[in-house]
């Protein structure tokens, strides 16, 4: 799944992230923990306010401002993370445009797909320590509320998806402008920053099976499991439970839709129909498992009629990944009468964002890590954080699946 490009790639990447002095030390290292600890030091920042770069949103649709911010130390049951890589998801785009309930929470640091290293932990955190490689997740589980105790849902009353939530669990913020003005959080994570503070319950520790030579490519790929890929693959595997020989229709061929396609292919679906108004996406989609394509603009007939013709009455499973209610109607109508299933995966601007699969589940899916789902296929661009507005433009124009941002 991940290509071993040797120590040279790791050295070049870390040089961008920090200083050339790391390269000399890196040659002596092989153990991931040793690399992480050395990377976080020589400057011990534990218990101190960190000044770092972050991309701050000051208003709906306004260009993000990359500037210095203050990140305060983690408090009780919190973790402060040195972010190595982050990406832009469609839900970031929705929040940035001010299309949902989060539109009044400014200034704010967006972002929720990332991977990084634990810089320090707050009081009470015993399962993680400085130097651990981690991935933040937007949908934590407290384990105590009535939802967490119910096997029928993965929603958590305290750490579920809440576009309006703009502070930590204790009601405070860890981000401040250089003038001391609070900066709000986003989806329990806020990853468009060199350092972020996250409630412990929203962090997954990675048991890294990679050495210093291929560690960075490995961690880069796992960034995508924070949301988009886990949502798509999880919808195919855990929600629909796609079976061998079945037929599938995927509406919307962005990163989540293609993750659904890869998940369906891994389960042995015989026909995977991709529906999108952008035909430029079809070549990439074909390489990722989609077998047939429909562009709604190429034919006046309803999409569901065309799908029923192609599948002898309709597909077994349809997935709406565009976040559009009109598309959802087509997705529902395209399924076979009697046994068809429609899964809503898209992000809707009102009344809430629907993210129906828990990313923590996919970290336990060995098949995904072993290459049944190729995470590298989703990475189409890579840019420094300073060019984050360009990354937003690429996603808005439909030219990017996932753009990795490094620091």
Automatic annotation (TrEMBL):
Cofactor list: Zn(2+)
Subunit structure: Homodimer.
Alcohol dehydrogenase-like N-terminal domain sequence ranges: 76-173
Cited InterPro entries: ADH-like_C (IPR013149), ADH-like_N (IPR013154), ADH_Zn_CS (IPR002328), GroES-like_sf (IPR011032), NAD(P)-bd_dom_sf (IPR036291)
Source species, domain of life: Eukaryota
One of the record's GO cellular component terms: cytosol
Pfam families attached to this UniProt entry: ADH_N (PF08240), ADH_zinc_N (PF00107)
Any one GO MF annotation of this record: zinc ion binding
Domain Alcohol dehydrogenase-like C-terminal: 255-367
The keyword Zinc belongs to this UniProt entry's keyword annotation: yes
PANTHER family noted in UniProt: ALCOHOL DEHYDROGENASE, ALCOHOL DEHYDROGENASE-LIKE 4
Name of the molecule in the record: Alcohol dehydrogenase
Source species: Psophocarpus tetragonolobus (Winged bean)
Alphabetical list of Gene3D superfamilies matching this protein: Medium-chain alcohol dehydrogenases, catalytic domain (3.90.180.10), NAD(P)-binding Rossmann-like Domain (3.40.50.720)
Family designation: Belongs to the zinc-containing alcohol dehydrogenase family. Class-IV subfamily.
Keywords from the named record: Metal-binding, NAD, Oxidoreductase, Zinc
GO terms (BP aspect): formaldehyde catabolic process
């Amino acid at each position: 799944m991940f290509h071993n490009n040797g120590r040279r790639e790791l050295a070049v990447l870390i040089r961008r992230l920090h200083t050339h002095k790391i390269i000399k030390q890196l040659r002596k290292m092989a153990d991931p923990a040793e690399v992480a600890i050395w990377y976080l030091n020589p400057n011990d920042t534990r218990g101190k306010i960190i000044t770092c770069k972050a991309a701050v949103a000051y208003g709906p649709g306004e260009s993000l401002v990359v500037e210095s911010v203050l990140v305060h130390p983690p408090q009780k049951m919190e973790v402060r993370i040195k972010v190595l890589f982050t990406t832009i998801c469609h839900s970031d785009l929705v929040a940035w445009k001010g299309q949902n309930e989060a539109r009044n929470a400014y200034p704010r640091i967006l972002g929720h797909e990332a991977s990084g290293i634990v810089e320090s932990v707050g009081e009470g955190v015993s399962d993680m320590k400085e130097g651990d490689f981690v991935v933040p997740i937007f949908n934590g589980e407290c384990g105590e509320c009535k939802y967490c105790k119910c096997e029928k849902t993965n929603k958590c009353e305290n750490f579920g998806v809440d576009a309006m939530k703009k502070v930590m669990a204790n009601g405070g913020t860890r981000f401040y402008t250089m003038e001391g003005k609070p900066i709000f959080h986003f989806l329990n994570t806020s990853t468009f920053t060199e350092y972020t503070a996250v409630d412990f319950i929203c962090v997954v520790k990675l048991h890294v099976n990679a050495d210093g030579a291929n560690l960075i490519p490995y961690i880069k790929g796992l960034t995508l499991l924070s949301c988009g890929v886990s949502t798509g693959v999880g919808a195919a595997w855990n929600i629909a439970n796609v079976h061998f020989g079945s037929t599938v229709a995927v509406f919307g061929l962005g990163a989540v839709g293609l993750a659904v396609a890869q998940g369906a292919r891994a389960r042995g679906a015989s026909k995977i129909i991709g529906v999108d108004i952008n035909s430029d996406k079809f070549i990439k989609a074909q390489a990722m498992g989609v077998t047939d394509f429909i562009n709604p603009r190429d034919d006046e007939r309803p999409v569901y009629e065309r799908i029923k013709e192609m599948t002898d009455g309709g597909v077994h499973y349809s997935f709406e990944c565009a976040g559009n209610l009109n598309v959802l109607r087509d997705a529902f109508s395209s399924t076979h009468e009697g046994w068809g299933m429609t899964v809503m995966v898209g992000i809707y601007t009102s009344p809430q964002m629907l993210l129906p699969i828990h990313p923590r589940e996919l970290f336990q899916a060995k098949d995904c890590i072993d290459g049944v789902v190729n995470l590298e296929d989703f990475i189409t661009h890579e840019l420094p954080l300073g060019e984050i507005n360009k990354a937003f433009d690429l996603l808005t124009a439909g030219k990017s699946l996932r753009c990795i941002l490094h620091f």
